[in-house]
Amino acid sequence: MNLAKEIIGWLAFTTSSLMLVPQVLKVIKTKKTESVSLVMFIFAVTNYILWTVYGFLKNSPQIYIANILAFTSSAIILGYIIYNGVKKRKEKQIHKTKEVNNLGN
Amino acid sequence: MNLAKEIIGWLAFTTSSLMLVPQVLKVIKTKKTESVSLVMFIFAVTNYILWTVYGFLKNSPQIYIANILAFTSSAIILGYIIYNGVKKRKEKQIHKTKEVNNLGN
């Protein structure tokens, strides 16, 4: 029984640390994040910080290594979502000022 | 020290089980999944199944409850990604047959 627990634990550790990598690669490649949830990745970053601290408190490398990797991935994705959001807002602002100027002329 | 571990453990449990909910709500609302990674959610579903089994083997409700919730959320998102992928392929197919027919006329 213990062996099963060990194997599943290591498998779960591997999928946990790699899970976000495909999303990171997709966001870096496409630069697109419209359908990715900002709130989810704020939760995700918080979640992985908590599990990392928990891993250190429990002195479990399995937990804190997986969660440092997952934290890094989610922080990169969150960065892209925020960057795209700011960019979109600026474009809207420029668009509005152009409209106002056109009305003025 | 144990109290800190307990508190952080419960906080991490909460963010783990709720983390995917904003993405589920966004996908259900917008029906859009272009920038969401299919491979990530295949990993995620696998990941949460593994952690759920691990939680049962360790007899830890904290682990298996959080991961059953996260499994449900990731399965819903994966369903939408696959549904949208199939729909897109069908539309492409229809578009192609129309083009071929037009060439034929």
From TrEMBL, chains A, B:
It is a multi-pass membrane protein. Keywords: Cell membrane, Membrane, Transmembrane, Transmembrane helix. InterPro entries: PQ-loop_rpt, SWEET. GO terms for cellular component: plasma membrane. It holds the Pfam family PQ-loop. One of its GO terms (molecular function) is sugar transmembrane transporter activity. The chain crosses the membrane at residues 7-25, 37-57, 63-83. It is found in: Cell membrane. This is MtN3 and saliva related transmembrane protein. It comes from Spiroplasma alleghenense.
